Automatic annotation (TrEMBL), chain A:
Species in which this protein is naturally found: Pediococcus ethanolidurans
A Pfam entry, by short name: PTS_EIIA_2
CDD domains documented for this protein: PTS_IIA_fru
Any one GO cellular component localisation term in the record: membrane
Residue span(s) of domain PTS EIIA type-2: 2-148
Taxonomy of the source species: Bacteria, Bacillati, Bacillota, Bacilli, Lactobacillales
Name of the featured protein: PTS system, nitrogen regulatory IIA component
Automatic annotation (TrEMBL), chain B:
Protein's UniProt name: PTS system, fructose-specific IIC component
Stored NCBIfam families: FRU, PTS_IIC_fructo
Source species taxonomy: Bacteria, Bacillati, Bacillota, Bacilli, Lactobacillales
Annotated spans, Disordered: 108-129
InterPro entries for the chain: Bacterial_PTS_Sugar_Transport (IPR050864), PTS_EIIB-like_sf (IPR036095), PTS_EIIB_2 (IPR013011), PTS_EIIB_2/3 (IPR003501), PTS_EIIC (IPR003352), PTS_EIIC_2 (IPR013014), PTS_IIB_fruc (IPR003353), PTS_IIC_fruc (IPR006327)
Keyword Disulfide bond applies: no
Short name of any one Pfam family annotated for the protein: PTS_EIIC
Record's subcellular location: Cell inner membrane
Membrane topology: Multi-pass membrane protein
Length: 153, 482
């Protein structure tokens, strides 16, 4: 299993409801795919959102959580058919959520370095544009992200 | 010293995403505005890109985009610190950078708001005005060029030159000739470096090219359409003009898509075009007119022997007023013409004044030496060596850094030296100045030649010392009162 692969990209997910419903749905999808406890994951997401919104603007959010016992980080993407109100910094609803799920105590700094590179990349307008253009196509999204950041197995 | 740079620290609760997003955004926004930016990230991987003492010292201000307390707050005591959240930085770093320029100075102590305010005001009072800081940034970058250029020329002239009616001539294809040329390159670069780093202090990297290129243009008579370039005074004018012009460009609302090419393409082209056009079209003619008028004045004064003292005073003042610039050139060329015409006492008077500015500013650093910075002490010794060889430019760093005190001192001192030279009827058959022409036997009376120079130095040095000590006393009084 890699930190980021096609199995963790879900395009055009239909959510009826608000941000919490979206987080719940995301937790279910990633929990199932990666063998994580869905309840712990949704709690982690919600706790982080309570501190401050992860919707940083341009229709993109990065909900994240730390999970006890996880072996390596998981990066996943969910795109929504209907934009979700996320209390974003620019007050625009979110169409793309990039989830960062990390082990609680990760001794491997390389994982964190990859995530920090991804975070920096999110400040690149071109990168965001590419994500938006590819939001209906999982393969395209995978390409955009892996072209920008080198993930290690 | 202002270098148009800032530092930042980012930290978010989890330390994997917002810390880096905020850092990236600050970095990008700052660089787009022409700042040198360094942002320390205190994330889950520990502290990265850590700020050094030098980074913090050089920074104009500090932006903290933090959601939780950070390590090492004490590092920022005495700096302007803006406190914001990572969300603020991600959303609008441009605004943070603008706000941080006006942020309060961090004192390191938790005080009541009132006390904090007092402290800030006190700090402001001791601080130099931004214009002085910008000027000093240019000067400190220029000094090494003046020192290398001046000392290479001085050594080459001392050991390799022989006096002729065409000036101090150094035989071609000798090591001294090479040294002289190297020194000349140092002096040539001094002008763009001064202008460039004044402009850099105002609006960062994008201003460097317009300022440096325009300063070269302003110092190139062939382009300007005048007989001489505008020397270091022109360089100061160019530096401030380019700096504030680029600052204005940076305030424009520019579409995101062309923003990256602004500092590397649009601003340099536009800035260089506007400033050089301004110098050539607007200032070229007045400078040429000024030079012609001064020449007529000198001609008029030289016709009547009874005004020879006035002529001396004017010549001396002209030598010191722009040290190698257009006005200095008029006086110098007038002296050269007098050699050709066979009555070299005008060159004699000019030669007396030439050494006064660098020797005086250099000697003045030895009076109450404790009041001088290390930079001034070094530049002072170099200035004395340059003065002995008749290189007036040695005083330029001092005059630029402290024009209010240095200009009156050296102008009056040089005027005195030339006037005394006139009274003694000193002649100089070589178009060059300073003690060296006396030692080489180009003057008619080396003893009186030195007396004239010493009179000028005595006046200038006394004035410089007086200004320096008075300033120190004033500051002491201020500290006591506070």
């Amino acid at each position: 299993m890699k930190e980021f692969d096609l199995n963790n990209i879900f395009t055009d997910v239909s959510i009826t409801g608000n941000k919490n419903d979206a987080l719940k749905k995301m937790a279910e999808l990633f929990a199932h795919e990666n063998g994580i406890d869905a309840k712990a994951l949704v709690q982690g997401f919600e706790a982080r959102e309570k501190e401050s919104t992860t919707g940083f603007g341009n229709g993109v959010a990065i909900p994240h959580a730390k999970i006890n016992g996880l072996q390596q980080p998981v990066v996943g993407i969910v795109t929504f058919t209907q934009p979700i109100e996320w209390e974003s910094l620019d007050e625009e609803p979110v169409e793309i959520a990039i989830a960062l799920i990390m082990p609680l105590d990760d001794p491997n700094k390389e994982h964190l370095t990859v995530l920090s590179k991804l975070a920096r990349k999110l400040m690149d307008d071109e990168f965001i544009k590419d994500l938006q253009n590819g939001r209906h196509d999982a393969k395209k999204l995978y390409e955009v992200v892996t072209n920008a950041i080198e993930f290690k197995a | 010293m202002s270098m148009a740079s800032f530092v930042g620290v980012t930290k978010c609760p989890v330390g994997i995403a917002h810390t880096y997003m905020a850092a990236e955004k600050l970095q990008k926004a700052g660089e787009a505005k022409g700042y040198t930016v360094k942002v320390e990230t205190q994330g889950a991987q520990g502290n990265e890109n850590e700020l050094t003492d030098a980074d913090i010292k050089d920074a104009d201000f500090v932006v903290l985009a933090i959601d939780v307390a950070i390590e090492g707050m004490n590092r920022f005591i005495g700096k302007k610190v803006l406190l914001a959240s990572t969300a603020n930085a991600i959303k609008d770093s441009d605004k943070l950078i603008i706000d941080a320029q006006k942020a309060k100075v961090y004192t390191g102590e938790k005080k009541s708001a009132e006390k904090q305010e007092e402290q800030t005001e006190e700090n402001d009072e001791h601080k130099q005005s931004p214009i002085v800081q910008q000027l000093l940034n240019g000067v400190s970058h220029m000094i090494p060029f003046v020192v290398v250029g001046g000392l290479f020329i001085a050594l080459a002239t001392t050991f390799g030159a022989h006096p002729t009616s065409a000036g101090m001539v150094i035989a071609p294809h000798t090591v001294w000739n090479a040294m002289n040329q190297i020194g000349t390159i140092g002096f040539t670069l001094m002008i763009p470096i001064l202008a460039g780093y004044i402009a850099y202090a105002i609006s960062g990297r994008a201003a460097l090219a317009p300022a440096m290129i325009s300063a070269m243009v302003a110092n190139t008579p062939a382009i300007l359409g005048t007989k001489a370039g505008t020397g270091f005074i022109g360089a100061i004018v160019v530096g401030f003009a380019a700096g504030y012009l680029v600052k204005w460009f940076n305030s424009w609302k520019i579409p995101q898509s062309i923003r990256p090419v602004m500092p590397i393409f649009v601003i340099p082209l536009l800035g260089t075009g506007i400033i050089t056009a301004g110098f050539i079209l607007i200032l070229g003619a007045p400078i040429a007119w000024l030079m012609t008028s001064l020449e007529s004045l000198l001609n008029f004064l030289s016709k009547d022997p009874s005004t020879s003292i006035v002529l001396g005073l004017v010549l001396g003042a002209m030598v010191a007023v722009d040290m190698g610039g257009a006005i200095n050139k008029v006086a110098f060329l007038f002296g050269v013409a007098s050699i050709t015409a066979g009555h070299p006492q005008i060159m004699g008077a000019v030669a007396c004044a030439i050494a006064v500015p660098p020797l005086s500013v250099g000697l003045a650093t030895f009076i109450r030496r404790d009041l001088n910075t290390e930079e001034e002490k070094t530049a002072g010794i170099a200035a004395i060596l340059m003065g002995l060889i008749g290189i007036t430019e040695g005083a330029i760093p001092f005059a630029t850094a402290n024009p209010k005190h240095v200009f009156p001192s050296i102008i009056i001192g040089s005027a005195v030296a030339s006037a005394v030279g006139m009274i003694f009827g000193i002649t100089d058959a070589v178009p060059h100045g300073g003690p060296i022409v006396g030692v080489l036997g180009a003057t008619n009376n080396i003893g009186l030649f030195f007396v004239a120079i010493l009179c000028g130095i005595a006046v200038s040095t006394a004035m410089l010392a007086f200004f320096k000590i008075r300033k120190d006393n004033k500051e002491k009084a201020k500290v006591k009162a506070a």
